[in-house]
Amino acid sequence: MRNWRPSPTLQASALVHAGALAGMLFEPGSWPTAAGALAANHVLLTAAGLLPRSTLLGPNLTRLPADAAARGEVVISIDDGPDPEITPRVLDQLDAAGARASFFCIGQRATAHPGLVRDIIARGHTIENHSEHHWKRFSTLGPGAMAREVAAAQASLAALTGRRPRYFRAPAGLRNPFLDLVLTRLDLQLASWTRRAYDTRNGDPANVLARLTRGLAGGDILLLHDGNAARTPAGQAVILEVLPALLDRIRAAGLRPVCL
């Protein structure tokens, strides 16, 4: 387990707060400047939390390590499931290609479909933590509520799989300065992605595939969704149209999809 150390941004933020509060306390006339500094600091922290691939708030895995990239490894990460209609078909497509993937599951959905969760594991994939409820307001939670939400999913998924997830992905990738300490205490690592195709609202398979494969290279972490998947004009979940072609592109590039 890593020891928690606040990121340079959080350390600087603490200094800004301390300086601003001291200024307002000992030099009342400085309060406009102090208030402006605090406001600017909060804007920075909010912006950092709105950028899913940012490392300003703490460690964030956006690519595989250099040795994995050199081996031509890539990760297909699949979020928001499991879904009883879509996930079994995704598993069949992965099996057909001999590919492995990492499923970032919502704890509540996993508990509702325990057999599907066990099937994901039995077929050689991994299950990681995507929070218990996938609340849209996740990034607004305080430290206690955030810790309960992440820990609840950790407990749910560990009970179902016999393995504690190693990675966490925030709902929609959005977070706040409390998350890194929460993850450290739960021995979790934040993982985002190299690229995504917004396939919860983009139902165009060609566009989704192009976004995921543009510049495809070893070390990439790609994001797709089996839960909350957008639908193609024909009514098909877009991941089911894209995944076979994506696996073909990966194989043609001499790359190998592995678990995170």
State the helicity in percent bands.
Answer: 40-55%
Distance between the termini: 18 Å
- What is the C-level CATH assignment of the largest domain? Alpha Beta
Order of helices and strands: HHHEHEHHEHEHEEHEHE
Domain count, please report it: 2
Low-confidence spans: none
Strand content: 5-15%
Instruction: Give the class from helix and strand content and strand pairing.
Output: alpha/beta
CATH superfamily of the largest domain: Glycoside hydrolase/deacetylase
The largest sheet is: 6 strands, parallel
- Computed Rg: 20 Å
Average pLDDT number: 93
For this structure, the CATH topology of the largest domain is: TIM Barrel
The number of distinct β-strands equals: 8
Q: What does this protein structure show overall?
A:
This protein is an alpha/beta fold and 260 residues long. It folds into two domains: 8-50; 66-258, Glycoside hydrolase/deacetylase (TIM Barrel), CATH 3.20.20. 46% of the residues lie in helices and 12% in strands. It is built from ten helices and eight strands. The strands form two sheets. Strands 1, 2, 3, 6, 7 and 8 form a six-stranded parallel β-sheet that branches. It has a two-stranded parallel sheet with strand order 4-5. Strand 6, helix 9 (205-213) and strand 7 (221-225) form a beta-alpha-beta unit. Helix 9 packs parallel to helix 10 (238-252). The radius of gyration is 20 Å and the shape is elongated. The model has no long low-confidence stretch (mean pLDDT 93).
